[in-house]
Amino acid sequence: MTHPNSKPLTLDPIGFLRSTQSAKFQLPPQPLAKSSCQGLVEIVPGQNFELALRDLEGFSHIWLIWWFHKNTNWKPTTLPPRGRTGRKGTFATRSPYRPNPLAMSCVELLAVKKGTLFIGPHDLLSDTPILDIKPYIPEFDSFPEAQTGWYQKMQQELAEAVAFELHFSETAHAVLEQRSPPEVREKIGSILSVDPFPHRTRRIVKYDDGYRLSCGDWRIYYTVTGQKVHIDTVEHRSN
């Protein structure tokens, strides 16, 4: 039954994220400080939004409220990309596949120049619509002792797990060093050293006598022996 007060809502972007990251594999799962990606938030002109940015420069971090503009459906449960905890209720995850594809990210604010915000590491694709901006205030926004349910348990299990050793063939090493973007190398390290086995959200599948990891148009072929991952071939799909 539809709630009597349930009415469509109209949201207009106040700006758009601009960066060189146009594919999901180029982004970290969260805006981690060690990530190298930076970006710009270009404010929509002619709406007095530039005036609304006044006094924001004194803050080191901001909240971006944004729209998963490339997602067209939602799922009531989702499979987390890390660990092997099984499917979780979408409202207990940060899955992008939500009834209303809203997201929020805390990012470092590097500078404010006219109608543009320069931000540090982020997890937004280029051209993402920005719906709102709020200052990050530790007094209200930080809860270091908060409990995180299944996520906390998963993190403990991952911390106790023995990391996999990565071994590259000469050919694979040469391709990664000379041709692939840094995001591919970062993905290989962060994923395969933790769990190199088939997983849908990590785009790992069984392939011949080994496995294949997909990162955008890149394909990484490898085998696993004990705690060692042998990366044999790295190819670009256009080849």
Describe the structure.
- The chain folds into two domains: 15-141, Elongation Factor Tu (Ef-tu), domain 3 (Beta Barrel); 165-236, YaeB-like fold.
- Helices cover 17% and strands 31% of the residues.
- The protein has five helices and 13 strands.
- It has helices at residues 49-52, 138-141, 149-160, 170-178, 182-192; strands spanning 15-18, 39-43, 61-67, 77-78, 88-89, 102-113, 116-119, 129-135, 165-168, 204-207, 210-215, 218-225, 228-236.
- The strands form three sheets. Strands 1-2-7-6-3-8 form a six-stranded antiparallel β-barrel. A five-stranded mixed beta sheet has the order 9-13-12-11-10. A two-stranded antiparallel ribbon has the order 4-5.
- A hairpin with a 2-residue loop joins strand 11 (210-215) and strand 12.
- The mean pLDDT is 89.
Keywords, please?
5 helices, Elongation Factor Tu (Ef-tu), domain 3, six-stranded antiparallel barrel, 2 domains, alpha+beta, globular
Helix and strand succession? EEHEEEEEEHHEHHEEEE
N-to-C span: 53 Å
How are the strands of the largest sheet arranged?
Answer: 1-2-7-6-3-8
- Provide the CATH topology of the largest domain: Elongation Factor Tu (Ef-tu), domain 3
How many DSSP E strands?
A: 13
Q: What is the average per-residue confidence, as pLDDT, rounded to a whole number? A: 89
CATH superfamily of the largest domain: YaeB-like
Describe the largest sheet. Answer: 6 strands, antiparallel, barrel
CATH C-level label of the largest domain: Mainly Beta
The total tally of domains equals 2
